[in-house]
Amino acid sequence: MTVTASNTGAARWAAVRPWLGVAARLGLAAVWLIAGGAKVGDLAASGRAVNAYQVMPYDVATVIGAALPFVELALGALLLFGLATRLAAGISATLLVVFVAGIASAWSRGLAIDCGCFGSGGQLAAGQPPSYLPEILRDLGFLALAGFLLIWPRTPVSVDGWLAGPPVEDDDE
Is the pLDDT of residue 58 over 90? Predict the structure, then answer.
């Protein structure tokens, strides 16, 4: 029997992919847990950070800002334990697209704000430049992790895997 390069590559990918999924899942979990944890202690500041984007009425922004840390913590916990991974990745991807759009909108309108992604946020001090491009690139990287988990949500060491049993060998899930 001849082993071809494509068979070897496919076998290597099949062996590595689940562990890349674990890294993506735990990495994204850490992002959400850190982001939510940084904001949950001061929900009013989180509301002010959302309001700084100037895309919705103040009352709506403060409610969204107060709810966001709890959503982030819930996503982080789901991903940490590997429970409802595809759902958590889908919600993560949606939030990240909204975050990228919000940052791009603030940038295009000439606002000088801190994104508030990992606490504080809001208007920057006079003369302090915003860092929109690095924030967008960072969030696109997180979006790539969520995309990986949308395509391949089954990972080792997860509640999903425990509940569903071992994946079949040709399972692309």
Answer: yes
